[in-house]
Amino acid sequence: MSLERKKQPKDKIFRLYKKSSYNGKMTLFMPKREISSVDSRDRCLCGVVVIEDQDTTDMSWKVYAQLSLELRYGREDEELMGLQFCNEMIVRNQQIYPAQDIRRTANKTLVIPFKMEISGNLSPTVRLKPSRLYTGSPIGTTYTMSVYITTEKDGIKNLQKTSMIHMNVWVKEPEVKDEIYLGEAKIFKRLLMPRSFVKVKAAALIEKEKEACTVLVKGNIQCWPCKKIEHLKVRLIQAVDVAMFSSGYFKNDVGFAESKMVDFENTYRFQFKITPHCSSLSRPGKHWLAIQDTIHNKGGIGERLAGSVLSADQNLFSIRIIYYAQVIVKLENVSKEITLKLPFVLNR
After folding, report:
1. CATH number for the domain running over 183-344
2. Number of C-alpha atoms within 13 angstroms, CB side, residue 152?
3. Taken in order 206, 209, 210, 212, is the CA torsion positive or negative?
4. What's domain 17-172's architecture?
5. Cα distance between residue 70 and residue 88, in whole Å
6. pLDDT per residue as tens digits for the range 69-91
7. In Å, how far are 177, 261, 343 from 95, measured between CA atoms?
8. Are strands 109-117 and 127-129 parallel, antiparallel or unpaired?
9. Residues spanned by CATH 2.60.40.840 within the chain?
10. Residues of CATH 2.60.40.640 domain(s) within the chain?
């Protein structure tokens, strides 16, 4: 009786990332450089390290793979007298040589495969863009995969700096399953005259169009007695919360629409379509702006807004990003403006 063997599914590799050390003796290959911040099924980094012209009989040297996290919360050009605006943490460090599954070739070349599994929640990769021109180290959270060789002599470990390799890794926020996210709000206010009132109700929805996301803000205004609307404004706001600061959020306008001097009877219905953007926000006086930083958008070409980051835990390395639409209504002969806040989720 013959037993049929079940074919094991194999992961197909469509792209391979490569980086060599300064002296050219060590090369790192990785099939992927993106992992999920919360999904345990997508929390594994693997690769192959190739070392040339190394004495394999000498057991005093070892090879390590290390994943580190850096949070930079200030400009590098403003660091003075040893003060650094960054925190660093080693997420995972493991020895990959000497180990099993080592392949030696005839020309004294070592081929070392490794697999690194990450446990616990990670803060997503976030890039912050200052309002003034900046060319220093990236501001925000940065993950780096490092491979290096250490030698031990007389009980002292030495690091071979010319054989170090550093390769960036991106941690992504999982997308919200629902394609349309709805944020609703309403407000009811009494006016000075008897039985007079104003009621504003609005909602914000996300409409996906290929790679772009459009925010649809619609609602209605009810008022008695009838009054004229001096202005109706809708602002899209990005709020960034950096854990190292306790002074609140960095807020930036990422979209705007308005209408002025509108006459209506009893009920006025409005609707605005706004596309969030960051092209016109790099002017003096604005706060740091969270922009998308992925392996597919490196070098600042075609900058796009970062997606919402809601799962970040409150720790020294977390950065949260939230979006909301602010509806501002100003009625004739009413001193105060009426404001509604409509949160929404921006997926990337």
Report:
1. 2.60.40.640
2. 7
3. negative
4. Sandwich (2.60)
5. 4
6. 999 988 888 888 778 888 899 99
7. 38, 70, 46
8. unpaired
9. 17-172
10. 183-344
